[in-house]
Design goal:
Oligomer: single chain
Order of helices and strands: HEEEEEHEHHHEEEHHHHHEEHEE
Distance between the termini: 17 Å
Structural class: alpha+beta
Strand order of the largest sheet: 5-4-6-3-1-13
Largest sheet: 6 strands, mixed
Helix content: 40-55%
Strand content: 15-25%
Shape: globular
Radius of gyration: 21 Å
Bound molecules: alpha-D-galactopyranose
Number of strands: 13
Length: 383
């Protein structure tokens, strides 16, 4: 069932009435450009066909339910956060208030087909869809830039995950059939056609919702930038260093900061290269860059897990163009780029290989590049 149907029927079940508005936003895979968005570099995400839907109706107070467990939570949006998923919604309400776009209260039902904790940006799908639905309820249409900012601040400032803006940006701006090359240092966006399907294989290793290792890496990158500025005054972002400057970095920075910088600088070059090759339709080269990116995450950024390393290696051996762990890391999912005429066979072999090695069958599915956040029509009354 679609997320929209799930959310509206959950709304009817939990609140014995019909929702007034529904909005949805997609999860994403990042093709390339990992841990570059908070270092001023490029990213190349694609929106998934899997979405999160938020159905809402006006009310004097706040009640929210997820179709995952059907439990209705009463929310005090002024109280300290509770370190649970409802914090994301509270964060959205607070940020909407700060731009005068929050309703006084609402009944809210949430449903999602985006796997949670799989590095597929289920949190941005939630914050973007919620911000869109609640602003509509308040009679306000946010600009796409405002929508990105409200969702980003809900996660970054309120929940405390030190993310960049990639996930919110693709969830808002995605268009069908394309990836988005976002140059985060300057804020430009360029659409790049994505032919065919991308494949996602979930490692089944869930990463924590609230930042943990990501926050540590971000701190390391900030320390590295501060050190680099001692000999490169005026350096704005780590991604502005050229590959030719890496020997200088290696001579001056302590380990493990050298490795973190090496990842950011080489990933920046790889991502721009991958966008060019995708524009030229050269999927084999894009795939090779994906696998190279994975090795850099594994060896330099130290953000992969053995399950993902295994999948990437096997994907190469089974004839895929390339594969890599997508999203923050420390668990999550691998994106696989494979020749269209062989993808079914490659995926079947890959899931079997994984089963033989880890004793369980991983979820694997294909997606085309999908569209960003939108208001959804309310489904007709169920008879
Ligand atoms: C998470 C963050 C993004 C980005 C990635 C790593 O998904 O939300 O902003 O930093 O990790 O590339």
């Amino acid at each position: 069932m679609s997320a929209v149907r799930l959310a509206t029927s959950q709304f009817a079940t939990s609140f014995a009435s019909r929702a007034a508005v529904v909005a949805s936003a997609p999860g994403r895979v990042n093709l390339l450009g990992e841990h570059t968005d908070y270092n001023g570099g490029p990213v190349l995400p694609v929106a998934l066909e899997r979405r999160t839907a938020v159905a809402a109706a006006p009310s004097a107070d706040w009640r929210v339910v997820s179709s995952l467990d059907g439990v209705v939570h009463e929310l005090d949006v002024n109280a300290p956060l509770r370190r649970q998923w409802t914090d994301y919604l509270v964060g959205v309400v607070r940020e909407l208030r700060s731009v005068g776009a929050a309703p006084p209260g609402a009944r809210v039902a949430i449903a999602s087909t985006v796997p949670i904790g799989a590095g597929l940006s289920s949190s941005a799908a939630l914050t973007v869809a919620a911000a869109k639905a609640l602003a509509l309820l308040a009679g306000r249409a946010l600009t796409p830039a405002d929508l990105v900012e409200v969702a980003f601040r809900a996660e970054h400032d309120q929940v405390g995950v030190r993310c960049g803006r990639m996930d919110q940006t693709i969830a808002v701006h995605a268009e069908r059939g394309t990836a988005l090359l976002i140059e985060t240092g300057v804020g430009t966006m360029r659409r790049v056609a994505v032919p065919g399907r991308l494949w996602v294989v979930e490692t089944g290793v869930a990463h924590a919702l609230t930042g943990g290792e990501l926050n540590v890496r971000r701190l390391e990158c900030e320390q590295a930038l501060a050190s680099c500025r001692r000999w490169r005054p005026g350096l704005r972002h780590l991604a502005d260093l050229s590959p030719g400057e890496l020997p200088d970095v290696a001579a001056r920075l302590p380990s493990p900061l050298i490795a973190r910088v090496r990842h950011v600088v080489t990933e920046t070059a790889r991502t721009r290269d991958a966008a060019r090759r995708l524009m030229a339709g050269d999927l084999a080269s894009v795939g090779a860059l994906l696998s190279e990116g994975h090795r850099s995450l594994r060896d330099e950024f130290c953000s992969t897990v053995p399950e993902a390393d295994f999948l990437v290696e096997q994907a190469g051996m089974r004839g895929a163009y390339g594969a890599r762990l997508t999203g923050a890391g420390w668990g999550g999912a691998v994106v696989v780029l494979a020749p269209a005429d062989r993808e079914a066979r490659i995926l079947a072999e890959l899931t079997r290989d994984f089963g033989d090695r880890f004793g369980r069958v991983p979820a694997a599915w294909g997606t085309r590049a999908a569209a960003g956040a939108r208001r959804e029509a309310l489904p007709p009354k169920e008879r």
